[in-house]
Amino acid sequence: MGKLQEFEISFDGSKVVYSPGESITGNVKIKVAQPLPCKAIKVNCNGFCGITTKVNDTAWTLEEQYFNTTVSVADKGTLKPGEHTFPFKFLIPATAPTSFEGNYGKIIYRVRASIDTPRFAKDYNAEKPFYMLSPLNLNEVPDIWGPSQSAVTQQFSYMLMKTGTMVLKAQTDQKGYTPGQVIKVTAKAHNQSGKSSGNVTASLMQRVTYETKRPTHDLRVIAQVEGGAVKAGKELEWKEQIIIPPLPQSVLSGCDLIKIEYYIKVSLKSPDVMLTLPIHIGNVSLDKKHRPSTKSASTPASSLAPEPAPNSLPVPEDSPTPSATTPSMPPRPAPKPTPRSRMSSCYSPSAPPAVFPEGAEGGATVDGGHPNKRQSQLVSPNAFSYAPGLFFAQNQQNNNNGPPASATGPTAPYPTDNRASMMPSPLILPPDYGAPSYPIDAPPSYDESCNT
């Protein structure tokens, strides 16, 4: 090195990572073997962002300066043989973004020292980088609470003629993570086709966008896990975990040239189905204790209950049957003819019809255990029309005679009263026209009829 034996920069406490708004202090150490004339010794601290359109190119297409400060630690003179130490101190702006190094751009911070020598002499330079970390607090990111979820339905064709459908749904347990945490991925795939699919895959993706005249996108696969295939006509639920390695944060606050995004890509091959789940990676993890309360949690349970209709009244369980008390009914228009039952004679119910107490209308449950259960086997004519003073002959006959002696209550498998005659019996068969009781010979002709 000739006259100059040592020329280096050191930071106090051997510190390498700094935060915005912090001071950076250190020393410039120079050791010479012979007297070295110089015009000045300067120390510079700067931070900038440079991007390009070529991989690993330092000829920046665009640059963005954050700060650039230069101080002179020694004036014009001659450095005597021996060691010399020159201290320095710089204040880092509070808006400086986090350091970053990518294929098409970098955010660089460095301290540079230079010895300016007289004319036609050699200048000496030294450089030492440092790193900036502007922590990203995930609790301050909007819409960060809750899982990240998505769904997609993809139609595809195979064997040149057949078509199929694949339904894919996936979600993560949350939207914000820090390096070292685990991402829990849950995926559900429903193969509505006759062809088995490829393996399901979940990948942690990083997409860096460099804002040049024509934006450049750098896509990288950080981590990847793979599961099984979905068989034809089957449904698969798949759960997996991804550990986050050390990565730069999602938001580079203060930088307008580089944008970083992270997402989970869940995909299938053959057919090609894919969905994305956006996530954030920061430096301060989510504090679940201070999670904002949702609207549903703050709403009392009474406010979620449905309100009763204004004209509806509660009916007690021990209320008398319609045969015991006649309720007052509002006036209604003139009765219409009773519609005929459209049930065919060959209809066979799937279960025995329920037994109703005397006077109860058909289609209403007795015990109240199944209020929504369909009971269309027994339908009273009063269910179709109503008018004060209108009675049906069957109802009058039942009321006069009372229940038959053979009725055994709710445990009887079939109703034995006269109301059963209202329903077409499944045992009634059409007449057999081939029986010998019907005429077999052809009818007489016209002439034979006239002669007789």
UniProtKB/TrEMBL annotation:
<comment type="similarity">
    <text>Belongs to the arrestin family.</text>
</comment>
<dbReference type="GO" id="GO:0031625">
    <property type="term" value="F:ubiquitin protein ligase binding"/>
</dbReference>
<dbReference type="Pfam" id="PF02752">
    <property type="entry name" value="Arrestin_C"/>
</dbReference>
<dbReference type="GO" id="GO:0005737">
    <property type="term" value="C:cytoplasm"/>
</dbReference>
<dbReference type="InterPro" id="IPR050357">
    <property type="entry name" value="Arrestin_domain-protein"/>
</dbReference>
<dbReference type="GO" id="GO:0007399">
    <property type="term" value="P:nervous system development"/>
</dbReference>
<feature type="region of interest" description="Disordered">
    <location>
        <begin position="287"/>
        <end position="376"/>
    </location>
</feature>
<feature type="region of interest" description="Disordered">
    <location>
        <begin position="390"/>
        <end position="452"/>
    </location>
</feature>
<dbReference type="InterPro" id="IPR011021">
    <property type="entry name" value="Arrestin-like_N"/>
</dbReference>
<dbReference type="Pfam" id="PF00339">
    <property type="entry name" value="Arrestin_N"/>
</dbReference>
<dbReference type="InterPro" id="IPR014752">
    <property type="entry name" value="Arrestin-like_C"/>
</dbReference>
<feature type="domain" description="Arrestin C-terminal-like">
    <location>
        <begin position="162"/>
        <end position="286"/>
    </location>
</feature>
<feature type="compositionally biased region" description="Low complexity">
    <location>
        <begin position="394"/>
        <end position="416"/>
    </location>
</feature>
<dbReference type="InterPro" id="IPR014756">
    <property type="entry name" value="Ig_E-set"/>
</dbReference>
<protein>
    <submittedName>
        <fullName>Arrestin domain containing 1a</fullName>
    </submittedName>
</protein>
<dbReference type="GO" id="GO:1990756">
    <property type="term" value="F:ubiquitin-like ligase-substrate adaptor activity"/>
</dbReference>
<feature type="compositionally biased region" description="Pro residues">
    <location>
        <begin position="328"/>
        <end position="338"/>
    </location>
</feature>
<dbReference type="InterPro" id="IPR011022">
    <property type="entry name" value="Arrestin_C-like"/>
</dbReference>
<feature type="compositionally biased region" description="Low complexity">
    <location>
        <begin position="294"/>
        <end position="306"/>
    </location>
</feature>
<feature type="compositionally biased region" description="Pro residues">
    <location>
        <begin position="307"/>
        <end position="319"/>
    </location>
</feature>
<dbReference type="GO" id="GO:0015031">
    <property type="term" value="P:protein transport"/>
</dbReference>
